[in-house]
Records
---
Amino acid sequence: MGAVLAAVLGASLVGCSSTGGKRAEERAKAAEQGRPAVSTPRWTFAMVTHAGDGDTFWDIVQKGAKEAAAKDNINFVYAHDDQAQQQAQFVQNAIDQKVQGIIVSLAKPEALKDVLGKAAKAGIPVITVNSGSAQSKEYGALTHIGQDEEIAGEAVGAELTKRGKKKAVCVLHEQGNVGHEQRCAGAKKTFGGDLENLYVEGTNMPSVQAAIQAKLQADPSIDSVVTLGAPFAPTAVKAKDAAGSKAEIDTFDLNEAVARDLKSGTLGFAVDQQPYLQGYEAVDLLWLYRYNANTLGGGRPVLTGPQIVTGAEAAKLEEFIKRVTR
């Protein structure tokens, strides 16, 4: 994939465009039609994330980034890998190709510290998204866009307490992911009952189901299970059913299956961090920085969540979820 990224980047660094009108109405119309709405050069921005294959959350992030790129006359290049060292290599490829901006997630920050230092020395502006808000400024990023993971976890703990839950399991599907640890720690901080972490192999869904099922069978007093990603919620439901448990299944993040299960009552609640906004704003803020030296956040993260979504809210968001923007 590194060679592919390099090739795409290399091919993109030619030409410029001066399409798009100056009036707000013309900009909006151009954006609706997928045409550039600005007259700035055709810059290239690269996004590198820690997404694993098939993770629907990152499809939403990408959609937001691509739509902002179309509006801003940006050539958008995306690469991902759940291994931090490969992520770092993708960032290095982007630096070598002299892109005009880099967007990166920092699930395992230390592995990307050195390469982001190289981006800073090369004069390439960086925005971090989703994970790594605590390290973003230290590593030289303009800002971080996402939810504060500990605050999001605190919202979960408070919601579990509000629902009268007494014993919860927080399912971590990617060991070493600082954001996941922060979510569970935040939930434990505000939860009025007992919360225990359960580490699973997130790339192996049958193994995830077996681990949750075994936990529920071993301790029938568990009354809630919190997964940290939308694709894991249905698996947790299967584990619950197989174990004969009455535990409530809750999750971070939304997708169409989660919305359906929220509406039916199969899931209790979900935590939305608005991934479309993370992708869209990352591209837009890089464009604004290059065009007008604008920054947002005042040195602090730009928060996109958390929002607790129940069945009623899911019904209102359904049309947006189906079009892969929520």
Note: The CA atoms of residues 29 and 37 lie 8 Å apart.
---
Amino acid sequence: MAERTRPAGGRRTALWALPPVAALAVVFLYPLALVVGQSLTPEDGGGPTTAPYTEVLTAASFQDALATTVLIAAGATLGALLLGLVLSLVIAFVPFPGGKALARFIDLFLAFPSFLITLALLFLYGTVGIANGLWTDVTGAAHGPLDFLHTPWGVLLAEVTYFTPFVMRPLLAAFSQVDTAQLEVAGSLGARPWRIVRTVILPEALPSLAAGGALVLVLCLNEFGIVLFTGAKNVVTLPVLVYTKAILDGDYTGACVVAVVNIALSVALYALYRAVMSRTSGAARRRGTPAPAPAADAPTGPAPASPVPALATGGADRARA
């Protein structure tokens, strides 16, 4: 009897899946197909050909944009990982007033648009920003010493500032699962804070750190607003090159070629991100501990309920006290 109901149940499942699949095809797959088709169509007409790819991929402008995109994305990811790890350790394991509120603020920060952070940096460190204004008021100089936001370093600073919370969120969730008794025992045996972090905390945090880093790398690869709002004219990434070719040059075929390459890189990095998350889940199941949630869905873990004196003060004697 059950076997007879399976085909009907399968048909109902297919009917329920049809509307979202159709919506996905109309909203995403059809425009993507148009972009791919345009990338194979020469500007002077004719049938599909790979000549536009050969022309764009061998151009110095594309190669420079690709190198700039990879270098900035890798640098921003590394900076966000280091800064996010340090800040997450402080929030999670060093008791201080307002720590829980700061951990909750991370969720709010993720909702901020990227250009807002860039504008804030311009107000602080721009050529007519607050820092340069204070310098000129004190010294009487005509110009301030800070003029780096229009360079790759400015773009790097803005991306690290904006994407660091995307690393902190899964890290805080992982740190909330760390058994504080292990830290107190390690401190009572004379382990210094750095050794506790290296031998006890980091092994538990590495999967979340890898997942957060993979996600930030994907986001940095496709970042457009930060580069645009910093006004860094000499910093041309792949998204900026798409904008330049399509809007400024009117070369829609070339813009579609660059867009397809950018999509391919993003999909490859997303596959890497999913592979990291899969390994994370498998490793967590083997250890018998819950797997950290993906960076996009992980709940922010507040500071542990009990402070960790060994990590906060840095000595076994103080830990016993």
Note: The CA atoms of residues 80 and 161 lie 7 Å apart.
---
Amino acid sequence: MNPADMPADVSAAAQTEDLLAAVRAIAQGPLAARAQAIDEGAYPIDLMRELAQMGAMSAHIDQPGRPGNYVTAILAMAEVGKVCGASSFLMWQQAVSALYLYGSENPAMNGERLQRHLAGEIMGATGMSNPMKGFAGIEKILLNATPVEGGYLINGTLPWVSNLAPDHSLGTVATVNGKGPGSEIMFMLPCSAPGVTLKHCPKFSGMEGTATFAVQCKDVFIGPNELLADPCLPYIKRIRGAFLLLQCGIAAGIIQGAIDSMWKVEDQLGHVNQFLDDRPDQLQAELDDLVGTVAQLCETPYDPSDAFYLDVVNARLAGGELCLRAANAALMHQGARGYLMCSDVQRRVREAQFVAIVTPAIKHLRKQAADLCAETLPA
């Protein structure tokens, strides 16, 4: 049967399976061989470009003849995350950058530039860790924008931004000098722009290959073609759920990788591992339930309501907490062999800890959930 003659749902399912099979081949082949090196600092830009070109980081975006599917994008990240959490995180960076461009009402963002991004010709990142904490009342927004003729001058420093290189761009937010809350702007900041400096961060305990830098801005000019939204809060409210849903792919992959490593030692150690609290079949059931919940939420990823966002926050929170449990359980199941520095189990413990603290961290998510509940319940 010609694919064009196939029912839309069958054709879409086949496309998803083909994409996931291609992603799996990279993950279990060249990526698996380099996972330890990536954890220690080797940035896998070649593999990221290959994954981008096959559509692994753009499956969630509507394209001609193929509507966007968030579940497919999340499952693609999970296939990579089973093998290398750092690479799954990099995929999320590229995927969420595509979301920024797609969600913008600026034609300069969602036209040719978006298409080049989807094709893997240009790479992007998200500098939203500080702004998200700023909007949640956890810390101040660190970039400020001064209105000038034709645009803004940006000043300040973002301490942690990943997936960066001199030819990449990052989406971020700045407060506008002289204006109050609610007037913030969101824009794509080119790393090559005059006044932008990338500074190396202190050494992390893992995931060193994520190309993470501090970004210093000194009178960086941002014109209309770089603006995602001005003001940005209504725009952020539209995409915030999708932003968090995509992160669930990182968690799902790391959890599944931990469960798989537990089964690997079941024949040798099952007689004693049966006395541990978290067993692989139990964790698998919890993961499957969580993925099912995320899939349901993916049916309306751009729902701006607080009720929907609360459900997404709770799903993302459950993913972070299950990540910690699964990675620790895998270490307990494997014992001393899992404590070796070269063990994928040991690496996965640190990857799970990253999922728990990366913005929004578990404590941030719990605060957001409490704030959202407080807004809907009487005093």
Note: The mean pLDDT is 94.
---
Amino acid sequence: MGSRLTEEQTAFAAAVRDFAKRECGTREQRDALTSGGREAHHPGLYARLADLGWLGVCLPEEYGGAGGGVADACLFLEETSYGLVPCGGFITTVITAKAYERFGSERQRREVLTGVVGGDVLSIAMSEPEAGSDVGALRCRARREKDGSWVIDGQKTWISNAHCARSILLVARTGEDKHGGLTMFHLPADTPGVRIHGIETMRGREVNDVFLTDVRLPAEAVVGEVNNGWRQLMAGLNHERLFLAANMLGLARRAFDDAVTYVREREQFGRPVGSFQALRHRIADLATEIECTRLLVREVALDCDARPDQLLPRQASMAKLKATEIAKRTALEGMQMMGGYGYTTEFDMERHLRAAVVSTVYGGTSEIQRDVIGRTYGL
């Protein structure tokens, strides 16, 4: 399949770029929206994206969505990331929404997906203090009562956007089998017994500890099937890894353009520093790698739309690995090319680096992605 945009997608991307330039095109605007770079999500701006109908870009029309595909969602993520739009809640929201769309009951889909279109943020809670890459080792336990309801106790950690989420898709242990004993639950964030505590990181506040003490949920809170959570999680890996890849592709493009702007304008020894071969070759290499990444991400997105029920572990992992690693490399190279200015908060490059460096860890580390890719070759 070709990776060129349709006329509708081209117009959509242009509209998102125009919105980003108008609403957060200056450093002053971005600082005001993000508390000086500490917050990745601005509720007011997010509500405006909802009013434009963009938050339901890949959700079914019957729930108020635009009825687009994975490729359209990736385009939105790429352009908002490039435009530095503080809508960090969207990445976990779209990942989680696709799980509800695939496995949720009609009541859950109606509640959750229409809420997403209207501006609700969603979060997904898998990781625990002793269960990161090895999700099957999680210990947060859901105990079924005689009346069919559930009581949940445990802790989750590194949970992105839980502090601004309307609901959390919780993965808990309901059986003893490592992978065959996991179940997904629909957990409203304001449920009694849920305590959310922010974790301070080098990028500000995005992730949280979620403590669950005697949390009670009705029988209908189960999303999908009891003890089938692992298979349901695996079915969503195409979307998760691809959406993360699209997000970092946008950031890589932005870090690259910021670096090029700087080396064109900065002069040393009587000439722009970008005219020196050492920097010119760096720019050429980064431009080539980013273009390769763009083609890969868009091709895999189109493949996901063409084969929605097929797992694409090799392709999705390749996209996530390539996009996150090039985003990190571009931000590091950009900082090097900018010298001391790249390290200052006067410019955006240090923010780009803080955003990019963690992307090779969350959603499956680069090492995990390489392992997945290797296994698809029978290794």
Note: The CA atoms of residues 77 and 293 lie 15 Å apart.
